[in-house]
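Hi team,

Below is the intake form for 3-5 exonuclease from Ophiostoma piceae. Please confirm the fields before the structure is written into the shared record.

FORM ID: S-0412
PROTEIN: 3-5 exonuclease
ORGANISM: Ophiostoma piceae
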Amino acid sequence: MASTTTPPSLISSEADLKEFLSSISSSSILYIDLEGNNLCRHGTISLITILLLPDNVIRLIDVTTLKILTFTVISNDGKSLKSIFEDASISKYIWDVRNDADALWALYHVGLAGVVDIQLLENATRVGSKKYVRGLDKCVQYDLKVGFMELNRWLRTKKETLTMMSTGVFSVRPLDAKTIQYCVNDVIHLPSLQDVYMKRIKTDWLEKVETESVARVAQAHAPGYDPHSSTKTHGPWGSGTTQGRLNVDDPFEYLEEQREEALADELFPYNDDVGYYDWDEDDRVNSADAAMDDTFDSCWDRGS
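The structure came back. Fields below:
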């Protein structure tokens, strides 16, 4: 998990937005997530969460308050959020870019360039069938070494947030502390997941991921794009089983993953409604955390 040197903060003024934009350079890496009511061309964008590396800061940009100024305010060094999002030289990582790209383009005519979709990185490096894409929640559980109690809190808060999605929780001001934490958790694990998958991937498959990431953005801009299509559960490479030849350890790692999944399903039965596909903001919750006090952390989480 990425650590932050400063607490996450909400940007709801032009001055704060200008200051944040000035901190972004061509060497910055952005991990991005959007929240809204029915996040797509038919809905709204309420918040944009950005984890900025190497600065290790998280900012929530208040689109509900700033509206179009979110994308048109220009920093002292001449940058806007629109120009940054559309600058291919600035690296950006998103989990399932499609409805985010759809909403940005349809509602504000803002494009996305320089994007790698981490959901595609997972699909490309997976041992076994690539027929269906996986959701962020499954990948955090099975691909990262998250402490038992932390994961339990994360899943519990996700479940609680899911029940509030219909109330327009992301547009309520002031923002609830749990809503802020939810937004933070939607991006906080992305660097670690990216690192896991980049260590596995072969060059030819990385090129496929980069090409397909661009294609996903283009598809989301198309007039006929359906943000709620059932085909979005499908991976782009069919049922191909591997990215290449398996090494001797791969079958054992796959069996261990299956065992861990079965154990997790037994330990966290309330997570049964969250499957392999990461539905967009109107239908799903990606992640949440820190709902409970650290008093209940086990010795496993504390490393003692």
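SUMMARY LINE: The CA atoms of residues 131 and 238 lie 5 Å apart.

Thanks, M.
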